[in-house]
Amino acid sequence: xxxxxxxxxxxxxxxxxxxxxxxxxxxxxxxxxxxxxxxxxxxxxxxxxxxxxxxxxxxxxxxxxxxxxxxxxxxxxxxxxxxxxxxxxxxxxxxxxxxxxxxxxxxxxxxxxxxxxxxxxxxxxxxxxx
Length: 130
Description:
CATH architecture: Roll
Number of strands: 6
Helix content: 10-25%
Low-confidence stretches: none
Mean pLDDT: 97
Strand order of the largest sheet: 1-2-4-5-6-3
Oligomer: single chain
Shape: globular
């Protein structure tokens, strides 16, 4: 399926789509030193959230989709150099309102879940900035 939304998203900062299907998307992100908040290499949570949000937008995959609300949990720390994989699936389709469940996993041998959440997405009549 073709990508119909968020086409200018930075692959380096938010992630790269690896799969887009009807009501489902996967996006991966390689974390970098620029994402670190301290000398231990802890990645700022905003990058993990951004990745998850991008997966939610691609699961909806409508040109005018926007995020209205999110209920999320950060489950494990993310370290510089880890590759993250976000999986988003539309759980509820109420016309213009879509609820997307997103899980983010790290690349270690256990494939630990580091983040999960529910994203409330809305498909607008026109672009939010029009």
